[in-house]
Amino acid sequence: MITKRIIPCLDIKDGKVVKGVNFEGLRDVSDPVGLAAYYSENGADELVFYDITASFENRKLFTDILREVASKIFIPLTVGGGIETVDDFDRVLKCGADKVSVNSGAIKDHSLISAAARRYGNQCVVISADVKRVDGAFRVFAKGGRVDTGLEAISWIKKCVADGAGEVVLNSIDTDGVKKGFDLEMLSAVEAAVNVPVIASGGAGKAEDFVTLFKTIPEIDAGLAASIFHFGEVKIPELKKLLSENGINVRL
């Protein structure tokens, strides 16, 4: 049985960890380096680091903070934000990232996925899809959830995987920060469409939401969350104990 991963996400803005609701109303949470070290020491299986305004502000990702985070943790690190070229992959990997997440950059230039996969391997390329319902359809958004691309999400994600993305982070803008559970309908549709690991993001409000996620969609590989971990509402060791008690295989 595949071990399910629990992944905290650090959304970075102006050098600080922030968290909002539906990608709006961002508020400061904590120092990213200290928080990353805490998660590494307290049961997180991986860590995701997003520079959430890099694409929107057309600038490079905060590499100084990234280097410091990478030096303090002993778990895999996925990094995204402002990744638009293969050189950006190179720069971020040299700062200590294990995997690189792309969203707006791949929408702008789809050849980025295949070029990066050829150079660094599929396992290094993560497609992060910010998806929202528009007139009943799943639509891909760019620039940190600000811009409707008009792309239908399922076909877009399938194309990214076919071109070399080795993992999918699906973030439902509809449920992001709302804390009423993961978007099971959207996740089921994406999981059924691809043959690579899918990480669920957006909506976790309590530990039981992870139980529901893995029980309802056993094929989902990981659950990602931010605020419930940052504010201590759910502690990862306690979450993993609950998952294990419910027959879900986790690294304890």
Tell me what you see in this structure.
The protein is α/β, with parallel strands linked by helices and 252 residues long. The chain has a single domain (5-245), classed as TIM Barrel (Alpha-Beta Barrel). It has ten helices and twelve strands. The longest helix is centred in the first third of the chain and has 10 residues, at 32-41. It starts with a strand and ends in a 7-residue tail after the last helix.
Q: What's the SSE blueprint?
A:
Elements: E1 5-13, E2 16-21, E3 24-30, H1 32-41, E4 47-51, H2 63-72, E5 77-80, H3 86-94, E6 99-102, H4 104-108, H5 111-120, E7 125-134, E8 137-142, E9 147-152, H6 153-162, E10 167-172, H7 184-193, E11 198-201, H8 207-216, E12 222-225, H9 227-230, H10 236-245
Parallel strand pairs: 1-4, 1-12, 4-5, 5-6, 6-7, 7-10, 10-11, 11-12
Antiparallel strand pairs: 1-2, 2-3, 7-8, 8-9
Helix pairs in contact: 1-2, 8-10
Total number of domains? 1
Would you list the SSEs in sequence order as H and E?
A: EEEHEHEHEHHEEEHEHEHEHH
Label the structural class: alpha/beta
What is the level-2 CATH architecture name?
Alpha-Beta Barrel
Instruction: State the name of the first-level CATH class.
Output: Alpha Beta
Shape: globular
Helix fraction, binned, reads: 25-40%
- Strand order in space, largest sheet: 1-4-5-6-7-10-11-12
Q: Whole-number radius of gyration? A: 16 Å
How many H/I helical runs? 10
Core attributes:
252 residues; 35% helix; 10 helices; alpha/beta; TIM Barrel; eight-stranded parallel β-barrel; 12 strands
Task: Offer a concise description of the structure.
With 252 residues, the protein is of the alpha/beta class. Helices cover 35% and strands 28% of the residues.
